[in-house]
Design goal:
single chain, about 160 residues, mainly alpha, about 0% strand
């Protein structure tokens, strides 16, 4: 049983020779393809990292351009809104001015019409009063009363008969 625990010199030599042969074969045939595959994978990873960095920079520049475009659009919108507000204020102001002028013109026409109607009514009342006075005078002159009191009583009764409309 001791033989299993302590290796013999022949076992050590043959194990070492086998290991060196295996190392030579692996180095000659397997080591180079494995290293080439690792190098190729390393290059692919480096290229992917560079592409990601490039994409990140491009996204950053696009984000900056987007922000600039949004700011330009906002400025343009604000300018359009300001122009619209000025136009609205101008239109409202002009409409108020025209309404005030039209109101003043219509008031002037109405005042003139009222004045003309009043003058016509006054003239008509004067004509009616003159006609009444003439009618009363004709009746008074048509009847000659000796007594002044009877004459005044007659005039009053005639005046009561006449209705002023």
């Amino acid at each position: 049983m001791n033989e299993l625990i302590e290796p013999s010199l022949g076992l050590i030599v043959w194990t070492s020779v086998s290991f060196l042969i295996l190392m030579f074969v692996l180095r000659k045939f397997a080591w180079k393809p494995i290293l080439d595959a690792v190098d190729e994978r390393d290059q692919k990873i480096s290229k992917a990292i560079q592409a990601a960095e490039e994409a990140r920079r491009e996204v950053g520049s696009l984000a900056g351009e987007r922000d600039r475009l949004l700011a330009d659009i906002k400025d343009e919108r604000d300018k359009i809104m300001a122009d619209a507000a000025k136009t609205r204020d101008f239109i409202v102001s002009e409409a108020k001015t025209k309404a005030a002028e039209e109101t003043a013109r219509m008031l002037g026409i109405a005042r003139e019409a009222i004045h003309n109607e009043r003058n016509a009514a006054v003239t008509e009342v004067r004509n009616m009063a003159a006609k009444l006075a003439i009618d009363v005078a004709e009746k008074v002159l048509g009847r000659h009363f000796a007594d002044q009191a009877r004459q005044e009583e007659f005039v009053r009764s005639e005046m009561d008969k006449i209705k002023l409309n």
